[in-house]
Amino acid sequence: MRTGIFICHCGHNIKHTVDVKRLCEYFSTFPGVVVSKDYPFVCSEPGQDMIQESIKKQGLDRVIIASCTPSLHSELFKDLLKKSDINPFLLRRVSIREHCSWVGDDIEINTEKARRLILAGLYSAAHYIPLEEKVVEVQKSALVIGGGVSGLSAALFLSRMGMQVYLIEKEDELGGHVRTLKNVWPAGRDGKIIIEEMIKDLKGQNNVEIFTSTTITDFEGFFGNYEATLNTPAGEKKLTAGGVIIAIGFSPFDARTKPELHYGEDERIITTLDFEKNGDRLKLPEKPRVAILHCVGSRDEQIGKPYCSRICCVNALRVADAIKTRYRDAYVESFYMDVRAHPRGGEEFFEDTQEKGVLFTRANVAEIIPAPGGITIRGEDTLFGEVFEREFDLVVLSIGMSPPEDSKLIASLLKITLDKDKFFLEAHIKLRPFDTAVKGIFIAGSCSGPKDVEESINHGRASAVKLFGFLNLGYAYVDPFISYVDPKRCSGCRMCEQACVAKAIKYDEIKRVVHVEEAACMGCGLCNATCPSSAIGLKGYMDSMIDDEISAFLEAI
Amino acid sequence: MKGKKIRNGDIENALNKFLKDEHHLVLGFKKGTDGIHHQVFKGGVDNYSLINHVFGTNGALYLRRIFSKGIEVLLMMRPCEIRAYVELHKLTQIEREDIIAISIDCPGTVSSKESKNNMPAEIDQLKGYFSSNNSMRWACSVCREKRGVVGDGGIRFDKTGNLWIIPYTEKGERIISIIEGELEEIPHEMLIDRSKETEKFQVDMETFNKDFEKCIMCMNCRDMCPVCYCLDCVFNGDEYLPKGDALLNKVFRTGSTTMPRGKDLFHLIRMYHVSQTCVGCGACEEACPQGIPLTKYFKGVSERLQGLFSYMSGRSFDEPIPYITFLEDELKEAED
Amino acid sequence: MAEDEKNKNPEIVGFACSYCTFKASEMAGSLRMKYPEGVKLIQVPCSSRVDPAFVIKAIVEGADGVFVAGCHPGDCHFIKGNYYTRRKIAALKEMFNIFSMKEKLRLFWVSAAEARRFVEKVTDMYNDIKEKKNEG
Lengths: 557, 336, 136
Prior knowledge:
The structure holds three protein chains of three kinds. By secondary structure, chain A is an alpha/beta fold. Chain A has four domains: 3-133, Rossmann fold; 141-250 and 403-476, FAD/NAD(P)-binding domain (3-Layer(bba) Sandwich), CATH 3.50.50.60; 256-395, FAD/NAD(P)-binding domain (3-Layer(bba) Sandwich), CATH 3.50.50; 483-538, Alpha-Beta Plaits. Chain A is 30% helix and 26% strand. Chain A contains 15 helices and 27 strands. In chain A, helix 6 packs parallel to helix 12 (453-473). Chain A starts with a strand and ends with a helix. In chain A, 48% of the residues are buried. The model of chain A has no long low-confidence stretch (mean pLDDT 92). Chain B is α/β, with parallel strands linked by helices. Chain B is built from eleven helices and eleven strands. Chain B is globular. Chain B starts with a strand and ends in a 29-residue tail after the last helix. Chain C is of the alpha/beta class. Chain C has a domain at 30-61 and 75-112 and 122-130. Chain C contains five helices and four strands; from the N terminus they run H-E-H-E-H-E-H-E-H. Chain C has helices spanning 3-8, 21-30, 52-60, 81-98, 115-135; strands at 12-17, 39-44, 65-70, 105-109. The model of chain C has no long low-confidence stretch (mean pLDDT 90). Chains in contact: A-B, A-C, B-C. Chains A and C meet through helix 4, helix 5, helix 14 and helix 15 of A and helix 2, strand 2, helix 3 and helix 4 of C.
């Protein structure tokens, strides 16, 4: 074995608290270690050149890079190994920055810890075998789940770029919530018109199939070849798609969850959504007294909705504005926690509304009490610390966005994660805001957290662009970290088969051993830990590798 | 519950009738010149013994990897053996299709290494014999299920000296139909009672190390364990227990090392591996040339680990082995 | 460091799942949070990859403590992996309890966002073990 160890200073980040020189000397004495070098930045071009030269000149067959954490720069170093004509899976990354130099301050202690970490890498890498990344063909097609404004914009972009698009919608018509909005911020256009335009464009494309009144019943496969089973009005339908965009929107908060608001019991207590639909038809006295409650179903720990729904402040302001426009002498009072009129033009609109005479009271509303003469609002003014009671003719609840009712179902079907509020979780909040942890499955619109219409359209397009980039390549690499079975050692007890979550293990009735369906294996290693004789092993995380890492950590010297 | 009362000779007759079919076999006990041993009967039974008061091995050991279809095997064995069979069936080491398992009330056994002279052969006398001295194997004295209540059917003894055969499944009914007579309500009280709860096993590493000091790593305990079913045990290779140069390397890396190396690792890992399937039969201890109190550890640990999931090995064909299933809402106390 | 003192410091081997706890430990490092050097991590794709044999091996080879850490129940990237982990590790903890060493094994759930929780959990474990070790 010819191993090369490269220890990075990361400028001062590592060198500052780890004696890299001493480590280099120490490892250079190891049998089998032919190169042991330190370098200020191994990820820099000269650093990469140094590694490449060592691989070529010394004929290395193991490369150990002790630097930052493996989730950074791994692709770069893997490519470097490929360029140097050795298998990229003979690379071992050892994290001596995030897990060592940044964790403690004592240079002696850190150097000793780094030594053990690198030792573990060295022992473990001895068991590495070259692995082949399998190339799979990627279908140039996408499944868009949800035909709201976000799903429509994603579908439209993908179809224009020449991808086959399957758009499925649970309801009997496309458009989602936007279809019901009469006046979409900021331009005040009718939502129905926006939707109709998009649908017309979409139907003009010849590579789009739209399924309405359709739900997903089963979902299998992997990036490039996902297989979905649909329940359509015409019966069951199966289709394959390269990637998926989830745009299942949101559920309006159900104000009945808070019984003290008496929503649904009195027709004078309505939500902003009711107002949007039937605001014109409301019967109000000449000088109506209208109360508007902000943050209904948002920023409320008690009902498990600690997040801000972002859209409802502007909705509340628009209700206030609409009433003030229709009834100049109306008494309109807004009860708010904080006014967060975040979208473009929101802040100016807030000021306009105030100028029109809408009263803003910072308050905690405790209860709404409907009575024949009027509706009493009882609460506490949080600026003056006073308890108040006031009577109104109409109460409008500015409701927030709740996660879509199908979020759990879709998450479990597509094997993706929800965040703590039950919206879909992005892979990385800054670096990968449109991706899920599953390759080729993207999220768009308010199903990943409250968004307004403009943002939802943009989010849909952005996810579509990202997915297009993946699909257009036409091929993809599959991680080779999957399980394999040594049939000579397998006792055929089928424990792994029964435990396997991905159902990737199949039993051969004749040979009485199991085998792994490579395409279905997720690479979790549960089977490996379940098999008492370790006849099934997870490539890249073999028993021998982990055992030796343990030994290296605990070596008594 | 209903069963058939058996008269003298009924069982032998029934077995002989069953064995008339050339594709039928019976695995049971035969009286030999020196004690009673497992026997596979073909064609008919001779010197048949319903019970065996001597424990040498667990008969389920011989059932592993019986897959052939069309050969019907009737098991007439102790409850611990039938329980091990049930576990092996869950582990696909036996095809259940052609196996009929009858468990027989067990009064307890002595070790095959003990003197068997002067021991009575009848069950009611045996019961008295065991209560008059302490020759019973420790494993039997703490047995969790001595009653013939597992498998497809059971043979039970009542307090007046009658034998009953009771079907638990359709297969059991089929066998019982060979015996003449009508099904009738079985007596409430039987000779062999439900086992008493034993004390929870508790030990420390010091005692463990002392108890296992003698271990020579012959691995007989593993080889004779009915539920240690792996064709190629992890301890066969040198991954866990390095040999040769790998061992020297290890010694150089870790310093002075007691030999045989890794016996603690071997026993602890095996203890975990069989924790849900161990039936506590004590075959390991019987096989140990060094007299290590293996049953105490293996049965003690497995009983507590099974208790965690309200599981009992071999109790039922339908309970899945706990490690391959889960409940979403459980074991909160295990989370730190 | 004096040799005696060194022996008093516990060695803790932690198994951390790539998707949650290992990510949390990366974040803890990036945030320059401090935790004892005796805590060393082995990265596994999922906590369900942890064979209880690894834990036993680590203890037999001299580790003072072992922890297995993964995603919170229900959040497993591999959907159900951590439920199996919980069963296996709960059983193993019971076994450790039988051998009067239950303090040596812990099971944590730490999500990718919970760097602070990661540091608290490992530090608590380290301190508890150190206390116990120096008592006897």
